[in-house]
Amino acid sequence: MHRRRNRKEKERLERAVAERSAALAAANLELQEASLSDPLTGVRNRRFFLNMIPADASQALRVARRRETYSHDHRDLLFFLVDVDYFKAVNDEYGHDAGDKVLVQIAQRLGRVVRESDFLIRWGGEEFLVICRSAERTDGPILADRILKAINGEDFDIGQGRCIPQSCSVGWAPYPWLPPMYSDLSVDEVLRLADRGLYLAKEHGRNQAVGLMPATATPARPGKYALMEELFTDGMVRELRTTGQMIRVVGSSA
User: Fold this and answer.
1) pTM
2) 43-66+74-243: CATH number
3) Cα 180 from chain centroid?
4) Could you read off the pLDDT of 149-195 as tens digits, one per residue?
5) What residue spans of the chain are helical by DSSP H?
6) Following DSSP, what letter does each residue of 196-245 receive, concatenated?
7) Active site residues per annotation
8) How is the chain split into domains, by residue range?
């Protein structure tokens, strides 16, 4: 009888410990998820990007190193920087609550465009980063068009029965830049290329996408282009522009 009670007590304590451990593990996972997510929109944040990108970039490079030239079965990372047009005007005219509603809906619409294997990240302010993984770089304009249509396809509900039109500008670039030039441009530099594409999209009138791609499929001499700027001065970059549909904008400030 005494042994039976001891065994039952031991089993009870073991169950309690297991339940407590499971609860702590769940709580830790919830905290970790919260630290990797944007509290307003619920999408991933920059911390998630910094944790994720080394492994994905390494995988893309491993694939690139198996081939001497770019081929259609090559799988890339495509970085799309998405910036909401005239967002300051939304906050100024309707208030920050309305601006927050627009950002939440932007994230939801982008979430319907990307695949489950892709990443959607709030990059900062009204800017989002879409990372298409294992993607075909020649599909970049198609994906950019989908992003534009997802944003400007219908008005945004900002509450109190009010709806406003909105558009976005997009800049994008592939990583690696041009195999086997995999060591010449880092992830940060390719992101700078995407950011330059975004600047060009805004400079040319907004509500459009500009992708920056290599101007040639012929690999350059290894180490020839150590700096991103040299690609432009040597004519090694070409623009791919996708224009969104015409919409009425809220204001004229950036």
Assistant:
1) 0.80
2) 3.30.70.270
3) 24
4) 999 999 999 999 999 999 999 999 999 887 654 456 889 999 999 99
5) 2-35, 46-65, 87-94, 96-113, 140-152, 187-203, 228-233
6) HHHHHHHHTTSSEEEEEEES-SSPPPTTS--SHHHHHHTT-EEEEEEEPP
7) 126
8) 43-66+74-243
